[in-house]
Amino acid sequence: MTKQQYSPVIWLNGDYVKIKKGNIPIMTHALHYGSSVYEGIRVYNHKPFKLAEHIQRLLHSAEQLHLKALYKHDVLEEAVLGVVARNDLDYAYIRPIAWRGDETPRIDGRICTSHWGIIGWPSFIEQQREKRKQGLSLDINPTWRKAPAGCTPHTAKASGLYTVATIARLDAEDRGFDDTVLLDTHDNVTEASTANIFFIKNNELYTPIADCFLNGITRQTVLVLAAKLGIICHECKIPVSTLGDYQTAFITGTAVEVTPIRELSHGDRLYSYDAHNHLLHKLCESYEQATKQ
Ligand code: PMP
Fold it and tell me: Which tens digits make up the pLDDT trace of 227-238?
């Protein structure tokens, strides 16, 4: 479905309106200073997956940016359900967003109003699912790094934090890769542009400690599912020099779900991974099952 064909009803500051009313003024603080926070929620069979967790994170992100929470948790949950129902979305991607308004160009934006909106798209990501199952080809670009803990509000899903990931992703795509993986300043693996990363070695699961990047809701779900399946999980530092030790790798996120990595490039090294590993297969299956409940 193209943008022209789809004219959704969005939720904006408490009301359901046609998307045309969602245009924002050019002096909007969020546009100039990145003072917005958002969520990405998937809808499976009319039901938003992990809705409470996403709304909780949205409110946490807003608090981190000193953005006034105009709506309570249950109001926002209700509004997501309202957008799903009003647009008759069965499989979809929902994006709640909150931002500082246009009252001043001053950096603090203290006097700016806060705005809250929710948009829903029919699921365009489904189309990429088949390609994803074959495994992605990712690039590690040492130029762009994840900032150390304490340098960014990394527990917030804040728009301003995406600048580096966007540049690294564009660089990776320009060089023929599907996505990028960022290292921290000590050469440890952190995450992909908008997804967390896992590895498998000798039937055990390894994932970087989320100490300077977003601890994704899918990441947390996969850790719970793995524990239920009796898979031993290690949250630990993963130095880039050890990437050759792993047999399988995959990324997790609301949009990509559980997606295998076929290969990971780092300078003149290319690591190949088994996209058909049986544990990965089990995790994909149990994740899919979870989305159906
Ligand atoms: N890291 C970043 C930077 C992301 O944007 C996302 C997507 N929200 C993730 C990780 C995965 O998070 P989740 O599983 O909550 O979608």
Answer: 999 999 999 999
